[in-house]
Amino acid sequence: MTHRALALLQLDSPSLILDVGCGSGLSGEILSAVSPTDGGPHAWVGMDISASMLDIALQREVEGDLLLGDIGQGIPFRPGSFDAAISISAIQWLCNAESNETDPQGRLSRFFNGLYASLRRGGRAVCQFYPKNEAQRTMISNAAIKAGFGAGILEDDPGTKNAKFYLVLTVGGGEVQRDITSVVKDMHDVDVQDARRGSKFAGKKGERKGSKAWVKLKKAQMEKRGKVVKASSK
Known about the structure:
Blueprint: H1 2-9, E1 16-20, H2 26-32, E2 43-48, H3 51-59, E3 65-68, E4 82-88, H4 104-118, E5 119-129, H5 134-147, E6 150-156, E7 164-170, E8 190-193, H6 212-224
Parallel strand pairs: 1-2, 1-4, 2-3, 4-5
Antiparallel strand pairs: 5-7, 6-7, 6-8
């Protein structure tokens, strides 16, 4: 699964990667072992809520730096710290409500907002996860979209017991387009969701703000409300 996530990241040079829910560092070892011909090796920082798992990673003398923390409380790194991020079988746990005071949507929001900020412009993240149902899948992807990511879900082995979901995320700016359709081009079983939330350049029905079509639409709306509208110039 880590190799699949790496392929979706499409990194062509050594990068600094955040491993979310790194556990004992198994994914990190793969990141460190990527050959120069494949764009590696990559440096990485692992974050996990389990002190015992991080202790195992230390005993195994992994090459990455390790941080004990709850991703549901946010990602505590400076803006633009990482080139990319991966997460293997972790983010679905953010949906669990362990008490009446636990808000899954709030935890997802803090996580994705923190992740978005920690990635450089043009960066990518791939989160492999196991949603319990369609509602949980939608809640996770919507939280990523609200944080500002371009988001799409890739499903491997759909309809089988071995089905795996990969949330592919992009950050606007840099050399990478915000629209992830370029990332998952020619891939099967890809569900792309638009993350362009209320862009200041977009009006209703997709008209560009300030364009003649947009102005015409706004005037029509005002006329319906009984307001006096200046005649359009020819």
